[in-house]
Amino acid sequence: MSRVSTAPLRLVTSVDRDVQLPRASTLPVIESEVQLRALLAGLSGVDAVGAEARAAKLATRSLKKSTKLAALDLAIAMVDLTTLEGADTPGRVTSLCAKAMRPYPSDPSVPSVAAVCVYPDLVGHARHVLGSSSVKVASVATSFPSGRASLNVKLLDVREAVSAGADEIDMVIDRGAFLSGRLGHVFDEVVAVKEACGSAHLKVILETGELVTYDNVRRASWIAMLGGADFIKTSTGKVGVNATLPAALVMLEAVRDFAEVAGAVIGVKVAGGIRSSKDALRYLVLINETTGSAWLSPERFRFGASSLLNDLLMQRLKQRRGSYVRADEFSGD
Amino acid sequence: MKVVDTAWKRTSMSEDRLDVRKTYKLLINGAFPRSESGRSYEVTTAKGEFHANVAQGSRKDVRDAVVAARAAQSKWWSQSAYNRGQVIYRLAEMAESRRDELAEHVRLGEGLTSKKSQASVSRAIDRIVWYAGWTDKIAQILGSSNPVAGPFFNFSVPTPSGVVGVLAEQDSSLEAFVNAVLAPIAVGNTVVAIASEKRPTPAVLLGEMSATADFPGGVLNIVTGITGEVAPTLASHEDVDGIDLAGVDEAFGDELAQLAAGSIKRVLRPGPSDEASLRRLRAFVETSTVWHTIGQ
Amino acid sequence: MSEELTNSRLGAMAYDPAPESAAIARLKPAYGLFINGQFSDPSSHENFETLNPANEEPLASVAQASVADVDRAVYAARRAYDTIWSKTTGAERSKYLFRVARLIQERARELAVVETLDNGKPIRESRDVDVPLAAAHFFYYAGWADKLDHAGFGPDPKPLGVAGQIIPWNFPLLMAAWKLAPALAAGNTCVLKPAETTPLSALLLAEILQQAELPDGVVNIITGDGAAGAALVDHPGVDKIAFTGSTEVGRLIQQRVASSHKHLTLELGGKGANIVFEDAPIDEMIEGIIDGIFFNQGHVCCAGSRLLVQESVADDVLRRLIRRVDQLRVGDPLDKNTDVGAINSAAQLARIKELTAYGEEEGATRYTSSCPLPDKGYWFAPTVFADVSQSHRIAREEIFGPVLSVLTFRTPEEAVAKANNTNYGLACGVWSEKGSRTLWVAERLRAGVVWANTYNRFDPASPFGGVRESGFGREGGRHGLEAYLNV
Questions:
Q1: Is A191 exposed, middle or buried (0-12, 13-18, 19+ CB in 10 A)?
Q2: CA distance C9 to A146
């Protein structure tokens, strides 16, 4: 374990209206599991009722007119257009990439999405199709979605995806290790995967549905951030409970606090079950009122989704035309 | 004025010696002071014969008693209900062992026959026992778990109002006194009682018994004296949370109730003096409700 | 670190206006007194305008009840009690109340808009809190009407008769529901006087009572100023007074009824302490502090207006709190995204300004939200005072506005002592992840309500009311029946 600093977790900075992030990087050093535990123990608990009530209250925000239009475009630009099926083929990935680059060819003002997200074996193909496009290639690695493999197997998975051209790696944490209290093991894996990523960005999937409690979500967020995550991500999309507003709220609070303590800006990705524009806009409100607008960018927030994109396009067109269009107006990819 | 024969005086006279007369003092903070004013007043029997000189409490005594009651209240309430019940039950034991003395005072003061005064004492002691049993049950009767529409554990418990002033009934010198002071004490209040002006000695005796019954000092304070003189002090005292107006007539009660409004006191107007009921137990009880989130 | 990040401010994404339509209110130009089932002109023929505090525009003309009108209303209530309501079975009363609950739900949107127009509170609160809770209150007490034998007051408990009910302007409809529902369930008839500045939702409720075909005179609603309230308090035909409002007025009422043998319950002011321990769930606690003091512009008797923070985390809590306060959206109450609405009246605004001026004079450090305020209407920016001492006026007096005083403590014992160092005793909050300490504190707080890891929650099943100078009697739950039964 590496990294240097002794920054306290409790913030004692003087009162300031604006969010002032520390300029110096003061990432806490983690040199032992004891130290990691002490650091995590210093984190405040989460009251589940309060967190859920806060998320529910923010969900009542009403975005209208120009706010809604801007939010829809932003959401499109934040999509990691995803296909993670056993039946995926190069052909399927080709159409996905086309959709990612030009979600609605009839209107060139529609932004392209942030990334396509595929299994490692299809990274090379996606890379080829996307070429020099701004759309990134993301790949789930580390024996996604269960993560039940040896570290060597996981690292090999990562290295192959990176060498095939992945810009971003979505790893899964070892939930079994986390739930059995082997927090150092979880941390070490994140550190090792980060190293294997090289220059590729690392998104760490916490699988919040399996961690169950918000306290766990908060601790896992910090382990991932301390271990070198560029993004923390809610879910694989492969378990019963995927992204939820309160879990995302707790993760946004974690990246906000981490930025203040460590001076490092970590992104958040929500994945699984986000199908409607209404859902997506609620996440944008959550960001806006938790971390502030600095996170309202594809650099710092992503939606892992597939069918969401067409609903965003549908609502976007409705806002402009004033009436709804047929679902067939948009490609089914 | 002729000095009456009292039960113990007869005993002492039969031994052909000069009897030792008793001074009837106040009970404040577990101690038995004379009135700070140094005054006493003469109490007669129902027949108009001299009975005793009794300390004539002053407004200052009332204020001291309120201070003592306030200081004792949180400790009395923080004792377990089981423990409070035992203390009150001990008072019944004390009263039973001195029942003849109590009966004699009730007989003289209320002008009853021996048999009737004994019966009155029996009822009073039984009522003490009744209250002793309430201490650890009242919360289950007046408290509740409240099914609110949300993820909250929500419960209500009865808590004492705090310091309760009692203007004891003037006629029923023991039974009504027991009823009036033990109801608030059983539910965790401390009491400043103004005893019956004309018949104060049974209350004074009960006060003495309370001091030997492990009542912590200040839980029961008894001021004897002229009700009309000290009652306004008690009714207007802002550190008194509730007042029982049993011992005054309606017009004076109205006046005192207005004074009591100054600090939003709980006011109990006269009802049946022998009433053994929840009404009395509820009179100086607050409902405290706690909400706590329920989540993983 | 990018410049963009360093300069970012929370809530910087502007939301376009999302106003609810004022037309939904369908207000009439003028409203009479609701007596004996009919709207009628006041005997004085005097009327007054009720204003929208958000823009100072008149909303409607409302009748000023005279002493004669109060007499008429009490007479109607008495006759309804004698001839109808006391002969109506609990089961039948129950069904009337269920009807009222349903009608409130059906007309929820209209009621919410009316409430927001007349009171100035955000539509999100009237829509999500006031109106649903009002319906829930009727629904809850409806079920009690035929079960009074089982309420713990002995067999066949009797109603008191005619109840005179005086309610405040901070939750006009909800307070009407809190008063009427238990009174009617217990078998009383009512004369209700809404506050002078917020009469409209009660008048809409009168229409609902007509729709529910509640027998004439069972509920009478009279509008007017304090003189009308005083006439109701003094009326010899009234058996019970229930008042919610300031301690100052409550004291006067208690004095006035002292010689009348009227039953009385009072729900008065408060200076609630919100106690934050160092192990509090910090993010939810910050939200709880916000809800505690800025909900309904702080026009809440149980507001958590004193924040007691453990000294070890005081700087951090204050910093996070100020950041959060700055993010509150203040403005058009009809906008669905508004967090803090208008102050209810010019008089209340003047009172808030007066007390906050003392705060500065006494040396407290003032933080005021930088939010822009509308030009017209009564507005006060959310404000936090730090470095407040127990002896400061802003720590002792009820401000009844969006103003928080922050004090610190060192130990649980000191927290309890400071929380209890007030003549009030309505509500407190405790924030901690340690259950045993929370219960230890809750047990020692002199308050009718303690919220642990939450604040400003209300429910018809939960008894609400104060100790000491915050009043006596409970509203809500089984306990709330006692206020309207002769037991």
A1: middle
A2: 39
Return the pLDDT at A297. 95
**What type of residue sits at position A36?**
L
Minimal C-alpha gap between B147 and chain A (Å): 16
Q: Residue B222 pLDDT > 80, yes or no?
A: yes
The per-residue pLDDT for range C80-121, each reduced to its tens digit, is 999 999 999 999 999 999 999 999 999 999 999 999 999 999
pLDDT surpasses 50 at C3: no
- Checking DSSP bridges between strand C471-472 and strand C263-267, what pairing results, if any? antiparallel
List helix spans (H) across chain A: 33-41, 48-58, 65-77, 90-101, 123-130, 151-163, 175-179, 183-197, 208-211, 214-227, 245-262, 277-290, 308-321
Q: How far apart are CA C74 and CA C83, in angstroms?
A: 14
Give B233-257 pLDDT, tens digit per residue.
Answer: 999 999 999 999 999 999 999 999 9
- Residue B209: which H helix or E strand, with range? helix B201-212
B199 Cβ neighbours under 8 A, 6+ residues apart = B43, B109, B110, B170, B171, B173
Contacts of A18 in chain C (CB under 8 A): 7-9
Describe the crossing of helices A214-227 and A183-197 by its angle, rounded to 10 degrees: 40
Cβ neighbours, 10 Å, residue B32? 16
Whether B296 has its CB under 8 Å from any CB of chain A: the answer is yes
Considering only alpha carbons, which residue of chain C is nearest residue A74?
A: C13
Using an 8 Å Cβ cutoff, are A167 and A137 in contact? yes
> Per-residue b/e over A231-266, b at no fewer than 16 CB within 10 Å?
bbbbbbbbeebbbbbbbbbbbbbbbbbbbbbbbbbb
Residue of B nearest to A214 (CA): B296
- How many CB atoms are located within 10 Å of the residue A108 CB? 8
Instruction: Measure B258 CA to nearest chain C CA, in Å.
Output: 5
Q: Does residue A41 sit at the C interface (CB-CB below 8 Å)?
A: no
Q: How far is it, in rounded angstroms, from Cα A143 to Cα A157?
A: 7
Say yes or no to pLDDT of C10 above 60: no
Structure confidence at residue B271 as a pLDDT band (50, 70, 90): confident
**Whole-Å CA distances, C241 to A286, C167, C190:** 47, 11, 10
- A140-166 average pLDDT score: 97
Q: Which residues contact B251 (CB under 8 A, 6 or more apart)?
A: none
Kindly state the tokens that stand for B56.
Answer: 């004539």
Contact between A114 and A78 (Cβ < 8 Å): yes
Are residues B224 and B204 in contact, defined by beta-carbon separation less than 8 angstroms? yes
pTM of the model as a whole: 0.94
Rounded CA-CA distance C87/C189 in Å is 12
Residue B221, strand partner residues:
B192
Give the residue from C475, C412, C465 showing the smallest Cα distance to C443. C412
Contacts for C158 with CB less than 8 Å, ≥ 6 apart: C187, C485, C486
Q: Which two tokens stand for residue C295?
A: 């909900």
Query: C13: pLDDT confidence band, cut at 50, 70 and 90?
Result: low
Residues A7-16 have a mean pLDDT of: 28
C-alpha separations of C380 from C143, C170, C340, C350 in Å: 41, 16, 9, 10
Reduce the secondary structure of A197-224 to three states and give it as a string. Answer: HCCCEEEEECCHHHHCCHHHHHHHHHHH
Question: In this complex, do A48 and B152 lie within 8 Å of one another by their Cβ atoms?
Answer: no
Residue (of C343, C12, C293) closest to C170 by Cα position = C343
Helix or strand (DSSP H, E) at C136: helix C131-142
Which residues in chain B have their CB less than 8 angstroms from residue A49's CB? Answer: 150-152, 293-295
The helix/strand/coil state of A231 is strand
| Closest chain C residue by Cα to residue A21 | C6
Cα–Cα nearest to C136, from B150, A50, A58: B150
- Determine the Cα–Cα distance for residues C272 and C358; give it in Å rounded to an integer: 19
Say which amino acid occupies B56.
Q
